[in-house]
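We modelled the chain as a single entity of 231 amino acids. Its sequence is:
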Amino acid sequence: MNKVVSSFAEAVADVPDGAVIMMDGFGGPGGMPQHLILALRDNGAKGLTIISNTAGLPDFGSLGVAVAVTHNVLMENGQVRKVIASFPVSASPARPNAFELLYREGKIELELSPQGTLAERIRAGGAGIPAFYTPTGAGTPVAQGKEVRTFNGRACVLEHALLADFAFIRAHQADTLGNLSYRGTSRNFNALMATAARITIAEVDEVMEPGGIGPEAIMTPGIYVKRIVKR
């Protein structure tokens, strides 16, 4: 089965209003599916929930697609209803990102999740685990409204798994069957997110024939990937 699609627009054409989308991101452009983000902007789907490590840092101006690297383009276009993230704000109070400006105006929702907890919530979703307890966040605002139990004398917060309608991920290599390998910082959330979505779309640098990626280099098996599009 050849999972390669011809364009980014085709890859995201069926993303509907109200979709929940996981997108990789780790404080910069590494590992982020910039071209899929731009295609989603052009798709125009509204009311989206975005699950990502960051909700947007200031643009990295040296990049040709810098406007997309922090999801700011989706916020500015009024397409996002809610963000689930660990680092939703800019590192500089003097340079607020698009999410911050909308949040201050009450135009967007935020669910803050500590970074390790966010990763585990995504992993649990992909593994079919509905929820888990963690000591992270106990006794802080993160625990407000959540069940707290004590294990071995330590308070732990119940966190629910995350699942998505779509995962937009970035990989280095793919074969036509959807097997993926990653490079550098693209290994952070991408492999986790690929397992936790109904439809995973991979933006890749190179497409190879089956067998072109050594089995020891495959980090996401093709069974998780529905579409591939070459940068």
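As a brief sanity check on the tokenised model: The domain at 8-134+162-230 is CATH 3.40.1080.10 (Glutaconate Coenzyme A-transferase). The first strand starts at residue 20 and ends at 23.
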